[in-house]
Amino acid sequence: MKKTLSNIIDNTHTEVATIMFRAIGNKATGQAIYTAISIAFNKRKLERGEEVDEPTRTMYVGQTDLDTRNEQDGEANRAPPIGLEVRINPYHVLERQMQVRNTCIVEIGTLTNTMREIGSKRPIGQVMDIDEMFDLFTNGKAEVDKTTAEEDAEISGLTVEEIFEAQRQRAVRRANSLKEIQAEAKLMVDGYTDSYNISILSDLSAVDQHQYGVRCYEKLHAELLRMTSLSPRQRRPEHAGLMTLIRKTKEDLLNWLIQVEDDPQFTQEFQDASDRNPNMVFSYNLQPTLGKTVAELKAAASLKAA
What is the DSSP code string of 77-129? Predict the structure, then answer.
């Protein structure tokens, strides 16, 4: 890849870079926790003697020592995208996700020191604490899909309220299951809190860099919205200039996302990724319908064509 996500971050303003590193770090933290939870769930299934497919069994059976695991996994250095379903050593995937998180924390610290040296007193947001992220996973508000509930009510003859309650109970059961293995999953994550790789962002696959880039775009967009909502008294002297810099970085980021998507050498990689994850976001989801997923846009296009 000629131009990487790191190149874009390196060429932007310090305050804008901190927003991007925080966005990447938070996403990587969530991915790492999800990976650790998945490992713990599958280990318990194997311990109970439940039926699992062979790739899953291969991933978890007899893997106790990190060095041994990495030696046994000859393909680990060419692992698939870290945010998607993984059929290669999951411990290596977890380590890479934590390397992304830890690298972002170090970079934010460096940028913070730079800003203080030039006299900036603006508070710098940090990557979310691991315990806070775990709390979101286990105690987060149950999501209720109103549109789906209304459609299901019409088909099933049940009331929307009954369906809402069923969704809520499912979320509670899921949260309780997560709490049962939280300690085990957190122990795995904590084992990689010192794992650091300065070049990790440049070394990631095209899909991983792209998806972190999408998250950066969304957070820059959100920051612009936040800044425009401030009253005149809340605005700093450099307010307008910073908004201009964020807008410029958004444009550069969007152009880069498009270039990566259109690069023939990554066509198959993106196809495989979108097959695994139908909610994967692409550049055409970001403007003007920020937040729309591929599946939603495809559905809307099909309805329009019909």
Answer: GGPPPTTS---S-HHHHHHHHHHHHHHHHHHHHHHHHHHHHTT-----PPPPP
CA distances from 157 to 144, 145, 160, 175 (A): 18, 17, 9, 28
pLDDT digits (tens, 9 = 90+) for 245-299: 999 999 999 999 999 999 999 999 999 888 888 888 898 888 654 444 444 444 5
Sign of the dihedral through C-alpha 45, 48, 50, 54:
positive
SS3 59: helix
Alpha carbon distance 36, 32 (integer Å): 6
Cis, bond preceding 123 (omega within 30 deg of 0): no
Q: Output the CA torsion sign for 24, 28, 7, 262.
A: negative
Question: How many whole angstroms separate alpha carbon 264 and alpha carbon 45?
Answer: 40
Question: In this structure, what DSSP letter does residue 199 have?
Answer: T
Cα distances (Å, whole numbers) of residue 260 to 151, 198, 282: 37, 22, 10
Q: Write down the pLDDT at residue 31.
A: 92
Candidates 40, 52, 41; CA nearest to 191 is 40
What is the pTM (predicted TM-score) of this model?
0.75
- What's the first-to-final CA gap in the chain, in angstroms? 39
Compute the distance between CA of residue 194 and CA of residue 151 in angstroms, rounded to an integer. Answer: 48
Torsion of CA 152, 153, 157, 163, to 10 degrees: 100
The string over 192-220, giving b where at least 16 C-beta atoms fall within 10 Å of a residue's C-beta and e elsewhere, is: beebeeeebbeebbbbbbbbbbbbbbbbb
CB 104 within 8 A of CB 125: no
DSSP state, residue 233: G
Torsion of CA 245, 246, 247, 250, to 10 degrees: 120
